[in-house]
UniProtKB/TrEMBL annotation:
EC numbers, comma separated: 1.1.1.60
Record PANTHER family: 3-HYDROXYISOBUTYRATE DEHYDROGENASE-LIKE 1, MITOCHONDRIAL-RELATED
Gene encoding the protein: garR_2
GO biological processes: glyoxylate metabolic process
Protein family according to the UniProt entry: Belongs to the HIBADH-related family.
NCBIfam families: tartro_sem_red
Domain 3-hydroxyisobutyrate dehydrogenase-like NAD-binding: 168-287
Lineage per the UniProt record: Bacteria, Bacillati, Actinomycetota, Actinomycetes, Kitasatosporales
Domain of life according to the entry: Bacteria
Active site: K174
Residue ranges of every copy of the 6-phosphogluconate dehydrogenase NADP-binding domain listed in the record: 6-165
Protein name (record): 2-hydroxy-3-oxopropionate reductase
Amino acid sequence: MSSLPKIAWIGLGIMGSPMSENLVKAGYDVTGYTLEQDKLDRLAAAGGTAAASIAEAVRDADVIITMVPASPQVEAIAYGPDGILAHARPGALLIDMSSITPQTSVDLAKAAAEKGVRVLDAPVSGGEAGAIEAVLSIMVGGEQADFDEAEPVFEALGKTIVLCGPHGSGQTVKAANQLIVAVNIQACAEAVVFLEKSGVNLKAALDVLNGGLAGSTVLTRKKDNFLQRDFKPGFRIDLHHKDMGIVTDAARTVGAALPVGAVVAQLVASLRAQGDGGLDHSALLRAVERLSGAQV
């Protein structure tokens, strides 16, 4: 019998599927639940176990990990008679790796404590590629002892793993991450349009820029998206729109001005309004092209 904790995984989307599979590869017993049968079949094919309900998935789990799109989905799977808190055993550790509002994480930790369930908020950065390669950055909020217990699990999923403070801190840092990423992508998109309209060899230009101070993980990861106009979603505009709402709202609450972030949030919203919400966030390039007179 394995001495590793038994894991329940709720949410097997673009990020959740490869992350749960990496835990299986690391030797963990993973039972998963999601609404899509094909995702359950994928987990089973990778060596995990498919559950028919949240209750079945979490009943015997030592660690419960959730990865769903937003706060409403976290609340839907956590609360109520069919939710996680109604069926998790006392002493279990619930790790929410979704990107949600800091207040949702704080409220969840409080509600879980009344059931004897411990909670960490642990959103991630790195996109689909980072999930597949198990090189995610994981920003965590919660108690030190719970973080220490979860750290081996995190190490199977990512490379940069940091406890950022009490409950909600992971989500606050993730909101800042999404602000930086969106502004970075927007700057890259504007540079691409400027370079192309100037007649410069775009590939050569991006290569040399990425080798200097203008270089970034965003440019490294998204360079081919820009060059090939390949906007297959690794992280959808719809989700980044949600995240920009989180950071602008949280910033307003604490009195922080986000002048550039606010503009980029509107550009993300406009792209979504034009029907591009299902595309990768590198499709911010399409918005710049439209503003520059291109028909896209």
